[in-house]
Design brief:
The structure holds two protein chains of two kinds.
Chain A lengths: L1 H27 L2 H11 L8 H7 L6 H15 L12 H36 L4 H15 L2 H15 L15 H35 L2 H8 L4 H23 L1 H14 L5 H11 L2 H29 L7
Helix pairs in contact in A: 1-13, 5-6, 5-8, 5-11, 5-13, 6-8, 7-8, 7-11, 8-10, 8-11, 9-10, 10-13, 11-12, 12-13
Chain B lengths: L1 H7 L1 H4 L7 H12 L1 H18 L1 H4 L30 H37 L1 H15 L3 H12 L3 H28 L2 H8 L4 H12 L1 H25 L10 H5 L2 H4 L6 H28 L12 H11 L1
Helix pairs in contact in B: 4-6, 4-15, 6-7, 6-9, 6-12, 6-15, 8-9, 9-12, 10-11, 12-15
The chains are: A mainly alpha, B mainly alpha.
């Protein structure tokens, strides 16, 4: 087990290295723009020319040296660089925004599980009945209705009908838990719907597979009730692959968070990313992308390891 | 089916006995998958709307009619937008954008998946190992994030969107093709072909490619809704197809959102059209996948005692 964890951690290194290469060189293709923007911004005052700005930003050396510097700083000091416009460390910017994105993500996951498990299980044990067709259609509906549209409608109708609109300024959870939840719950439910569509289908497929196993037939012939068979014998085994899928949904979750934070004005990492792209603040963009990549890799690792705890048949070598 | 036809008239028996692959697939879809058939009809309507947009739309998509933010009326069925353009016409022309982006980006993505997948799967070894690490690295970025970053590099525009979406989903899908190729290349007929000295290109074209058609079709139809949604999301965030071209996602952003309290119809119709289309394409793709994926075949009927009872009844 320990050897497996170590090997998996070592395997992450080449992947994250390649990811950092992709991020760094893709983002650097736009680097000219930010200097142009800065030259336009500083009207009057002392004349600073392009070479000076390039020197201050460390862009006057060849790109591969810039890359080595950047990676060196990350490894040696945990320093992701400094924001061009705000002059604050990128890691600080990201850390300040993490709680919002994580709260949104957790609420969305909880919503997804609450919606998807009962419907997925019901769909499987009543396969090819009207209820199953309804459940499956609902699942496809969930992955088809664009979140940004639902979000927009939620902004319109409550305010038209009841004069209620989601709060714009962030309410910290510690100050006003209810107000905070009120802010997060709508975007989280919309994100959760998208995830639950995928989960429902997975849950249904897995349940169907497990329900055809011999030990389920044995359970039936012992005269157990459907409730016991489904809840105790089938569900446990069907859940294992579903958990992996939840891990694989991280990229969808992050993509959803980017959109939802934008619509509902939540100051999370996704909003930081979009804002930095507009401002061409590339240290933040590279930092956030690398952060996402690292988070996704780590969560996938954790999911793989939980697999072993949940399923005693899985052995790590 | 063929037997009945042969009994009925000898002339029919002269016809080729095997229906073409696609016709067979179509008949099975209609017979076995009601949801898939509904999806197929929606896809067909979308295609026709996209192709004949000029004939169907009552006005031009960028034609100001002098009625600003007009509510739905007999004259302007879905209302008009803040620039006095007919919403119905814009939604109809929006279908064309979705069709163009959906079809071409899906085709491109399948092409990219096929090339990467076949090369990695067939050549294997170090080449596969290295390319797969790149695919790994690429896949650990959320699709939407990498799309936004690359589009912001290339600048907005339809062709940029198609290329970026095609590449992104192509790389993600290459795993599926690679897996299928690895399974097929171990077959005896591939080995035999290699033994008689067939060139690699010939083996790939004659033996590998025809056998991965099913996963390729599945890839194409399951990528399509994701791609249509991704285009809409990008356009919504302002990284997609620039106005005045009517993209459903773009119509929901900017003016659609700014005017949504005064003119809610500006935000409702494009989103509704988008939802219905993605719903339809998803159901169609699901139906096709169920028919084509051998792992999902069989096992019809309910689980448990009932099934066992039915099975024993049939045996008698």
């Amino acid at each position: 087990m320990r050897a497996y964890i170590i090997r998996r951690l070592l395997l992450i290194i080449p992947t994250i290295f390649l990811a950092s290469l992709i991020v760094f060189f893709v983002i650097r293709l736009i680097q000219g723009d930010v200097i142009d923007l800065m030259l336009v911004e500083q009207v009057g005052g002392q004349k600073i020319d392009r070479a000076d700005i390039e020197h201050i930003l460390g862009m006057d050396v060849p790109m591969h040296i810039q890359y080595v510097r950047w990676v060196g700083n990350i490894i040696m000091h945990g320093d992701l660089g400094t924001s061009i416009w705000k002059s604050t460390p990128v890691s600080q910017e990201i850390l300040a925004r993490i709680p919002v994105t994580i709260e949104l993500g957790i609420l969305a996951l909880v919503t997804a599980l609450v919606i998807s498990f009962p419907i997925g299980i019901y769909s499987a044990i009543r396969q090819d009945t009207g209820g199953d067709y309804m459940g499956r259609s609902f699942a496809i509906l969930c992955i088809s209705v664009p979140g940004f549209w639902l979000g927009t409608l939620v902004m319109i109708y409550p305010s038209l009908w009841w004069g209620w609109s989601p709060p714009i300024l962030l309410i910290p959870f510690t100050e006003d838990p209810l107000g905070n939840l009120q802010m997060f719950i709508i975007p989280a439910v919309i994100m959760g719907m998208l995830l639950s569509g995928v989960n429902m289908r997975m849950m249904r497929t897995m349940m169907l597979e497990v329900l055809r196993q011999d030990y389920i037939r044995t359970a039936w012939s012992k005269g157990l009730t459907e409730r016991v068979i489904v809840m105790r014998h089938a569900l446990k085994n069907a859940l294992i692959p579903v958990i992996t899928i939840i891990g694989l949904q991280m990229p969808i979750l992050i993509g959803g968070a980017v959109v939802m934070e934008q619509i509902f004005c939540l100051p999370g990492i996704g909003r930081l990313l979009l804002q930095s792209i507009v401002e061409r603040d590339y240290p933040i963009v590279t930092g956030v992308m690398l952060f996402f990549a690292g988070a996704i890799l780590l969560i996938n690792l954790v999911v793989d390891l939980t697999y072993g705890f949940l399923d005693p048949r899985v052995h790590y070598r | 089916m063929n037997d009945i036809a042969r009994d009925a008239s000898p002339a029919v028996a002269e016809e080729p006995k095997r229906r073409s692959f696609l016709a067979d697939l179509f008949i099975r879809l209609v017979k076995e998958k009601p949801l898939g058939t509904i999806g197929g009809i929606i896809v067909l309507i979308l295609l026709l709307t996209g192709i004949f947009a000029e004939a169907l739309a009552p006005y031009g998509y960028n034609e100001s009619l002098g009625v600003y933010r007009g509510p739905p009326s007999p004259e302007y069925v879905l209302g008009t937008d803040n620039l006095g353009r007919d919403m119905l016409s814009r939604v109809i022309f929006g279908a064309r954008i979705s069709v163009i982006v959906g079809l071409s980006a899906s085709s491109l993505s399948v092409l990219v998946s096929t090339i990467i997948g076949i090369l990695c799967g067939y050549i294997g070894g170090k080449f596969d190992l290295i390319v797969q690490r790149f695919v790994d690295a690429w896949m650990c970025f959320p699709a939407l994030v990498i799309l936004i970053v690359i589009v912001s590099l290339l600048g907005p525009g339809m062709w940029q969107i198609i290329i970026v979406l095609g590449l992104q989903y192509g790389i993600a899908g290459s795993r599926v093709v690679r897996g299928a190729v690895i399974g097929i290349k171990e077959n005896v007929y591939v080995e035999a072909s290699r033994a008689i000295g067939a060139p690699t290109g010939r083996i790939l074209m004659r033996h590998i490619l025809p056998n991965i058609m099913a996963p390729l079709i599945i890839l194409f139809t399951t990528r399509m809704p994701a791609i249509i949604l991704a285009e809409a999301t990008l356009s919504f965030l302002g990284y997609g197809i620039p106005p005045p071209t009517p993209s459903w996602g773009g119509m929901l952003s900017g003016p659609g959102r700014a005017n949504m309290l005064i003119a809610p119809w500006m935000a409702i119709w494009p989103g509704l059209a988008l939802s219905i289309v993605v719903f339809g394409v998803n159901m169609f793709g699901d139906g096709l996948r169920d028919l084509l994926d051998p792992r999902l075949r069989g096992g019809v009927g309910r689980y448990g005692v009932k099934k066992v009872k039915e099975a024993t009844k049939n045996e008698k």
